Amino acid sequence: MRHLLAVLLLCAGAPLLADEAAAPAAPPPRANASAAPTRLFQLTLLRASNHGSDELTGVSEGAKKAIRDIHDFLPFRSYRLLDAALIRSSDVTKVQLDGVPPQRYDVMLGFRAAGETKLSIWTFTVTPVRRGGTPLPAGVAPSAERAIIDTSFTIDAGETIVVGSSKLGGDEALVILLTALPKSIH
Fold first, then answer.
1. Residue range 118-137: average pLDDT?
2. Is residue 25 part of a domain?
3. Which residues have C-beta within 8 Å of that of residue 35, sequence separation ≥ 6?
4. Does residue 157 belong to any structural domain of this protein?
5. In terms of Cα–Cα distance, which of 164, 134, 150, 173 is closest to 48?
6. Is residue 176 part of a domain?
7. pLDDT of 83-109, one tens digit each?
8. Mean pLDDT of 110-139
9. How many domains does the chain have?
């Protein structure tokens, strides 16, 4: 792997009660954050392309399986690792991943338990980091950066899923995967 960014963050906790029938929503903060259990996640950012041979370069076995499982839905032949991050969190966390140089992306992940082994990811966003440049004239507001991926879903502990993709231009795209590592690894 090009590099592995390890981020250990303990954030404010979330209640463990959820209405499974409703769409995931942001939980209110819990008073006793020190008692919040933490979970370990792995983020993987890939550059997908139609050029090159059928290959998955620098990718973990779980990521390879997830890509193979949805191969028929994604129009790409090769996948190359751009960046990965290992995250420990109790509720909401944010990390930066390196994209195609010099672009970086903020990834925000918010979750809560939805059963013994199931997790509800109530927010997952990937937003380009604004690069420095020419200062704007007085009275001109900068344009807002929009998330290129903004979703919510459930995931089982030990599972790796393809969260989404975003076109880079031409026949290339970013693909982001999330692994909810099993509790035994913690």
1. 85
2. no
3. 13
4. yes
5. 173
6. yes
7. 999 999 999 999 999 998 889 999 999
8. 85
9. 1
